């Protein structure tokens, strides 16, 4: 891997992916996104991994799509490149993904953070969809996920003016889980990942699927899937172990079966 660094077990069952184009503020080139997709798919299939953390560095989570790479491209070039297919694959990852964000999370960077399931941010984190300033609009879900997270008027202002939103405001408006001091953002994200990784990986995946479905369906259909996944959890050994451990007043030992 050239543009990302992967640590398979930063904690038991927790993998860490670091975006690694520091000079370009982790601009999301096609090659970087392709490495990220391939790695996420590998980790999704690895039984030694239950939760994935994606981070950048202190200065930037990611400053957006690689603008230099997009320069000079026609609509047909962009259409045929079909770079968003990569994003569609990432959306299908079944294990939880936590974004650990410090510094810039702009354009595609903000969209990548929002594609993750949770966001832990440092107090220096800055979120934004500044595409409008270069004459384009968000293309990887920004208009939809930002609006769902922070509401129409705030999203509209950010998307139409390119205005940035600092971490404390992002927390206030429900874009992120929490803000921590800059020296703690990664450890806090890994801690949250480890907490989830200690639970039944089957139940965690079933739950993630249903929460995500709530964005794409109406209530009745979401409730039907929730019920199905609830019943499905009873087919796992982890469910038997979890219930037995509760009754026997001991810690459960979940195996992902
Ligand atoms: N693409 C390519 N290079 C970038 C990008 C970027 N998005 N952002 C920063 N860089 C490069 C700079 O060109 C500079 O390179 P060099 O040293 O060779 O000149 C280097 O990174 C450092 O950047 P700055 O000197 O500009 O650093 P500052 O601290 O002065 O400014 C900013 C930081 C404010 C983040 C500034 O760099 C900036 O405004 N960047 C662009 C932000 C932006 O507009 N992002 C949206 C891009 S469009 C987009 O994301 C579309 C999303 C849909 C597609 C998603 C598919 C992946």
From TrEMBL:
Which molecular function terms from Gene Ontology are attached? 3-hydroxyacyl-CoA dehydratase activity
A GO biological process of this protein is: fatty acid beta-oxidation
Q: Matching InterPro entries, A to Z?
A: ClpP/crotonase-like_dom_sf, Enoyl-CoA_hyd/isom_CS, Enoyl-CoA_hydra/iso, Enoyl-CoA_hydra_C
Catalyzed chemical reaction(s): a 4-saturated-(3S)-3-hydroxyacyl-CoA = a (3E)-enoyl-CoA + H2O; a (3S)-3-hydroxyacyl-CoA = a (2E)-enoyl-CoA + H2O
Q: Sorted alphabetically, which keywords does the UniProt record give?
A: Fatty acid metabolism, Lipid metabolism, Lyase
Top class in the EC scheme: lyase
Q: Which CDD domains does the protein's record reference?
A: crotonase-like (cd06558)
Keyword Transferase carried by entry:
no
EC nos = 4.2.1.17
Question: What does this protein's UniProt record list under function?
Answer: Could possibly oxidize fatty acids using specific components.
Q: Which family does it belong to?
A: Belongs to the enoyl-CoA hydratase/isomerase family.
Name of the featured protein: enoyl-CoA hydratase
Species this chain originates from: Adhaeribacter arboris
Lineage, uppermost ranks:
Bacteria, Pseudomonadati, Bacteroidota, Cytophagia, Cytophagales
């Amino acid at each position: 891997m050239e543009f990302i660094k992967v640590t398979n077990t930063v904690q038991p069952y927790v993998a860490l992916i670091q975006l690694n184009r520091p000079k370009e503020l982790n601009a999301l080139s096609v090659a970087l996104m392709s490495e990220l997709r391939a790695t996420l798919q590998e980790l999704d299939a690895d039984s030694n991994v239950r939760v994935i953390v994606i981070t950048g560095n202190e200065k930037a989570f990611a400053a957006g799509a690689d603008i230099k790479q997009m320069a000079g491209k026609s609509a047909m070039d962009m259409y045929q490149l079909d770079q968003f297919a990569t994003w569609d694959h990432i959306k299908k990852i079944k294990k939880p993904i936590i974004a650990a964000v410090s510094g810039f999370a702009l354009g595609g960077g903000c969209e990548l953070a929002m594609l993750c399931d949770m966001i832990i941010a440092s107090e220096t984190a800055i979120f934004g969809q500044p595409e409008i300033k270069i004459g384009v609009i968000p293309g990887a879900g920004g208009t939809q996920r930002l609006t769902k997270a922070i509401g129409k008027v705030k999203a509209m202002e950010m998307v139409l003016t390119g205005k940035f939103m600092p971490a404390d405001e992002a927390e206030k408006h429900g874009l992120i889980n929490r803000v921590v001091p800059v020296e703690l953002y990664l450890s806090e994200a890994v801690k949250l990942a480890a907490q989830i990784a200690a639970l039944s990986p089957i139940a965690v995946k079933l739950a993630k699927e249903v929460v995500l479905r709530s964005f794409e369906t109406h209530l009745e259909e979401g409730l039907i899937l929730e019920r199905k996944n609830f019943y499905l959890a009873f087919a796992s050994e982890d469910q038997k172990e979890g219930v037995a451990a509760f009754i026997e007043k001991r810690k459960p030992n979940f195996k992902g079966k």
